[in-house]
């Protein structure tokens, strides 16, 4: 089972704090993450729970950025205990049978289980170094490095271009052309 898409839920939550200002923003976040279903009922409790989860996930990515593997693992293990996985076989939208991590419980819990299990699987399969924070100042958005050579340093092409242009201009200004 490829859980990278589940790990992307963590990145989406971290990078969109503005979407946690209210229920409509949360609904938009869930739609973007493919987690919104017709008739989905969202509560203030879901919003509060995802705000708390976001803070915990930011701490995981900060520990990864600092190279503190033990801290990343400790934080993820703590999250896995609080958000236990409930796997289910699912078939929908013309797809073959495949695994989903959870379909029951509150919306926030479903999101948390997917995000945490996705990150835990990515860390155990590819390593802590695959969790990153954008190196383009002042961005600091989270990203997953799924490149084959572990070379990703920016959250987007836009940030990479901006950082490269800034470095080029600094070299030219300093006479390093």
What does this 3D model show about the protein?
It holds the Pfam family ABATE. This is Putative RNA-binding Zn ribbon-like protein. Residues 130-172 form the Zinc finger CGNR domain. InterPro entries: ABATE, ABATE_dom_sf, Znf_CGNR. It comes from Streptosporangium saharense. This protein has 177 residues and is mostly helical. It has a single domain (4-134), classed as Jann2411-like fold (Orthogonal Bundle), CATH 1.10.3300.10. Helix content is 53%, strand content 7%. The chain has helices spanning 4-14, 23-32, 44-65, 69-82, 107-126, 157-173, and strands at 88-90, 98-100, 131-133, 142-144. The strands form two sheets. The chain has a two-stranded antiparallel sheet with strand order 1-2. The protein has a two-stranded antiparallel sheet with strand order 3-4. Helix 3 runs parallel beside helix 5 and helix 4 packs antiparallel against helix 5. The protein is globular.
Brief overview:
The chain is mostly helical and 177 residues long.
The whole-angstrom Rg is 18 Å
Strand content: 5-15%
Q: At the first level of CATH, what is the class?
A: Mainly Alpha
User: So how many helices?
Assistant: 6
- Compute the separation of the termini in Å: 48 Å
